[in-house]
């Protein structure tokens, strides 16, 4: 299939077009900026709260205090905004009525989907590690300021956790892209997407076996092992958790492409 000029748009052209859209649609930039603000604010709050909790705890509790548990807690909350960035990359076109024009310019719909996914990937591969780094530095600074144990940036495992956190957020951004194509409406995609990401938080409401399965194998929960401080009982190692999340996101993107290709825009 070809565009209006009779020439099929190349992937580079599609990628440049999607990057231009991302830059010029203000709401996506605002949400991404908000994700940084939320990350830093929650890192401050978690660092302050956990530092106070350490000072008020018993000697036995202080001995078991792990500053890594404070380092990246903000990422579990900011993932909702990162997912929304991915959603808006798609649904903003549906809302503005420009998706038909995009399909006309890039008739190969798989190339259009890949262009949007590539833009989110490139952006989050930069922004994700910066959010994780900011969460670590702010939270550990607050712990140290209150006299609680803290970790330096060069502590074993910390650089890997920062990069793992960045990769986790990148996958969550791609998850948002898939939800945007599947549902086409911002409110529905953000609401359902957030519910699915936070489902493991509702595990205590489920029967014991189901709760254990959700906490261990639900993609968002399993993927958090990429930046988790240590393996808890029954949790997956980081490489399996990342593989499970990656496979789930890839399956959603494949489903999104199939739906996008088969229906009218």
From TrEMBL:
<feature type="transmembrane region" description="Helical">
    <location>
        <begin position="74"/>
        <end position="96"/>
    </location>
</feature>
<feature type="transmembrane region" description="Helical">
    <location>
        <begin position="117"/>
        <end position="138"/>
    </location>
</feature>
<feature type="transmembrane region" description="Helical">
    <location>
        <begin position="189"/>
        <end position="206"/>
    </location>
</feature>
<keyword id="KW-0472">Membrane</keyword>
<keyword id="KW-0812">Transmembrane</keyword>
<keyword id="KW-1133">Transmembrane helix</keyword>
<protein>
    <recommendedName>
        <fullName>ABC transporter permease</fullName>
    </recommendedName>
</protein>
<feature type="transmembrane region" description="Helical">
    <location>
        <begin position="27"/>
        <end position="45"/>
    </location>
</feature>
<feature type="transmembrane region" description="Helical">
    <location>
        <begin position="240"/>
        <end position="260"/>
    </location>
</feature>
<feature type="transmembrane region" description="Helical">
    <location>
        <begin position="158"/>
        <end position="182"/>
    </location>
</feature>
